[in-house]
What does this fold into?
Amino acid sequence: MADHANESITIKADRAAVMAVIADFPSYPQWAGPVKRIDVLEAGADGRAKTVQFHVEILGLSDTYTNEYTWDGDTSVDWNLTQGKSQKSQVGRYELTSSGATTTVNYDLTVEVAIPVPGLIRRRIQAKVVDTALKDLKKRCEA
It folds into this structure.
């Protein structure tokens, strides 16, 4: 069964600056808590990453998975899992909306895990992942 989480945060930075941080996958291990290593496997025609392999550790569990990305300028980015060990599917989206000198980032994530985990624990992990990702992104953008 897939679990869904959706959360927003407002960042004191313009939309292009926020999207530049999101698109800079090689820097994720410096600021994105669970990310230990990133491998950009393929770049798209626009120079942004198209296929990215993640090496993460969450609550003592390690995982490796690959996502494929579709970019819509500095407005949004969508991704889908193409290969995973602990996940059957992952569909995500960052959508950015500017308002003056700030940007609201909406993070939408649906994940189906491949290993048996009780629903309450899955939902807590998912909510923590989304919450942490947005807080880490905000901290990085506002630094």
Q: What stands out?
A: The chain has a mean pLDDT of 91. The longest helix spans residues 119-142. The beta strands are 3-11, 35-43, 49-58, 61-72, 76-84, 87-99, 102-113. Helices lie at 15-23, 28-31, 119-142.
